[in-house]
C-alpha cells in the first residue's frame, strides 16, 4: 500500500501536546469561574423571565398584587399600611397548596424578604407593626435553614410591640416551625444564661402555652409533649389536656419513659399520673404510682375511689405487685373491708387457679412419662438411665413439682398412699428437695397445704423435716394470711442447731414474706448476718432472705449490717462459694432505687477483698434493673472486657508437683476474683430487660461475648439470655441456646439447658420440648447434663402450661420486684452450677417460685364471682402516636373467658356489654354491666 493511501485511511487523533492540553484546561476553568460569574445575573433574569412566561394568568395576577402590596408598605402614607397588611394576611392564610410545595404567596414574597425586614425596622411600635412582624414570621419559614431562627424572632417581636394573634391561625406547618425554633432558642439561652440576669425564658414559655393547646387539639400530642420537655415545663401539661386528648398524651409520655434520662423519666410518670387522676382513671394512675414506687402516692390512689368495686380492682393490682398492706393503712385506721383485704393478700388465687385449670381441661395430674415421652427418645438412653437412679429420681422430683405446681393433686407426693411417698425414693439431700416439692404442688393453697405438709415435720429424718419447713415457705409464696402460719411455724427452727433445718427455715421465711417489708422479721434473721461465729452458709442465706423480704426498700438497718459483716469477716470466709449470696442479699435491697445506692457503692470500694467488686457490680445492676439505662449497660460491658492476668506460677508449680494444695488455693482465689464478670454479664440483661430496643441490642453483645469472652463470661451468657426472655420462647433465641447447649465447655452447656427451660417456662412449647428430648439422648452418659435436661423439661411444662415466670405484668408496664429476686437468685447459683445445684443444694431451683404466677385472664362480676364473657386475644401492637383509633392487637382469636395469655399477648372485650374496672385485661379483672348497651338483633 502506498504512503498516500495509508494517509487517506488514517483516523484524526486529538492533539497529544501536554502544553496545549494545559492551555485548553486553563481556558475552560477561566470560562467556568469568570464567565459564569459575569453571566450569573443575566442567567437569573433569563430564568425568572422564563418562569414568568410559564406562570398562569391567575398566578401572574397574584404575583403582581403581592408586589404592589409590598410597595405600599414602604410608602410614607400610613393609612395604606393597614389595608395592605390585611390583604397580605388574607392571601397567605387562604392560600392552599400540595403538602410538598411552598404556598404561592410565600414563594412570590421570598425575593422581597430583605426589603420587608428593612421596612419593618423603620416602623414605630403599633398594632400594625405587630401584624407586620407576624407576617414576616410566617414568611421567614422559607428561610428557616439559615440558623437565624427568624420565625421565632419576628413572632416574639410581634408580641412585644402589640397584641399578637394565636399562632395556630397560621396553620400546622407554621406551628411546627415555631415549636422547633423555640426548643433551639431555649437551649441556646440556657448555655449563655447569667445567674444575675432576670428570667429571659418567660416569653418563650408564654408562646409555648399558646402552641401546646393547638397541638393537642390537632392530634399532635407528641409535639406538645416534646415542646414542654425541651422547655423543662412538662409539669404544666395537665392544665392543657381535656377528656379527648389525655389518653393519647399519657400513652405517649409513658412510652417515652424508658428513653429519658433521670430525673425527666420520673417527672414524666408523675405528670401522666396527675393527668390520670384529674380524669378519675384510678387503675392507670395506680399503675404509674407503682412504677414510681412512692408509698404516699400509692396510698393516696388506693383511698381515692369512692366506688368499692374500683377499690377491689386496685387491691387486686396491689396484690399482684405484692405491695405491703402496711403501706395502705395506719395502725389506728386498719382496712376493715375483708373482701378488699382478700384481694391484697391474694387469698383467692388458689381457688381461681384451680377453676381455671378445670376450665382448660388440664386439672388432672400429669405423669413423668407424659413429660419425658421417652418412647420418642433413642432406646440407649433409657438403658443407661438406671446407672444413677438416685440422680434420676431427684430430677423426677423437680419435674413433678414444676409440672403439677398449684393443682395440689400430683400422684408422686400429694396423692401418694401412706408410706409410699416419692420422698423415700430419694436419699439425704434428695429427701429435702422431695419433701419441699410438696409446697410446690400445693402452691398458694394455704388451707389444704398446711395439713398435708404437717405430718412430715414430725419425721425423724432431719432432711425430710427440713424439706417440710421449706415447703411451708414455698406454699405461702405471694400469699398473706391473717394467721401468719409460715412465721409461726418456722421461727423456732431459725435458732435450730441443725444446719439444714436452720437454712430451710430461713429460706422458707424469705420466700413466704418476699416483698412484705415486715419489720418484726428483722431481728430474727439479722442476728445471723451480724454474728461472726455463724457459718458463711447461714449468714449468706439470712442476708438473702432479708433481701427477698425488704426488696427495693434500701433498708437503713440491714444495709450497714451486711457491709459491716463484709468488712469484719476473715478473707478465707469471704472466699467461700456462699459469700456471693451475701452480696446478692445486699443488692436486692436496692432493686429499682437507681442513684439511692451510690453511698453503698462508695462504702464497698473501701473493702479490700475481691467480694467488694462483686457486690459493687450486683448493687449497681440491681439499682437500675429494667430501666434500660445505656450508661449502666456500658459500665457492665466494660467489666466484661477486662482481661485478668493469670500468674504464670501455675506451670512451674505443676512441674514441681509438690505444691498442688497451693495451686488449688490459687485457683479458688482466681475464681473469686473473676466472679464479678459473671455478674456483669447477667447485669447487662437485667438493666436492658425492660426496654425492647435495648434488649434486642443486648442479644448482639451476648453473641460477641460468646465468641471472644473468657470461660467465666461464656458460661454466664446463657443465663443472661434467659433473664432477657423468661417465658418467652422466640425462635432465634431458642436456636441460639440450642447451639450453646452442645458446647464443648460443659459449664456453658449446663447453663444453656437451664436457659432453655427458663425461656420456655410454662409455655408447653413443642419445639423446645423436642430439642430437649434430643438433648436427653445426646447427653445420656453425662449425668449432670441429663439432670439439667430433665429440669428444663419440667420447667417448660410448668403448671401444665398455665404458669409463667416473666417478671413483667399489666401489659408489661410493671416489674415485679419479688419475681426478679427469684430469677436472680437462681441465676447467681448457676454461676457455680457444680458447687450448688448439681451438688447438694438443688433446692435452690425452688427460688423460681417467687417469679411464678398464673398466665390467665379471669373476668369477675362485682361480687368477685366468675363472669364468663367473650374476649379477643392477640399479639400486642404498639399504637403510640398512631392516627385515629388503631387496633391494639393483631392476629386475634375470640374466646370465652377465662383464657390463657402469652407474654406478649393482649386481650380486649369483644362486645360493649360490659365495662372493665381495670385498664389492662390481665389476671383478675372485675367487669360491670354497660348501662348504655343495646343488644343487636339478629
Automatic annotation (TrEMBL):
Biased composition (Acidic residues): 650-671
Record has Repeat as a keyword: yes
The RPN1 N-terminal domain, residue ranges: 66-377
Record keywords: Proteasome, Repeat
Residues covered by region (Disordered): 1-60, 647-671
One Pfam assignment: RPN1_C
GO cellular component, one term: nucleus
A biological process from GO: regulation of protein catabolic process
InterPro entries the UniProt entry points to: 26S_Psome_Rpn1 (IPR016643), ARM-like (IPR011989), ARM-type_fold (IPR016024), Proteasome/cyclosome_rpt (IPR002015), RPN1_C (IPR041433), RPN1_N (IPR040892)
Domain of life, source organism: Eukaryota
Biased composition (Basic and acidic residues): 17-53
Domain 26S proteasome non-ATPase regulatory subunit RPN1 C-terminal: 880-933
An MF annotation (GO) of this entry: enzyme regulator activity
Family under the similarity heading: Belongs to the proteasome subunit S2 family.
Its job: Acts as a regulatory subunit of the 26 proteasome which is involved in the ATP-dependent degradation of ubiquitinated proteins.
Protein name: 26S proteasome regulatory subunit RPN1
Organism of derivation: Meira miltonrushii
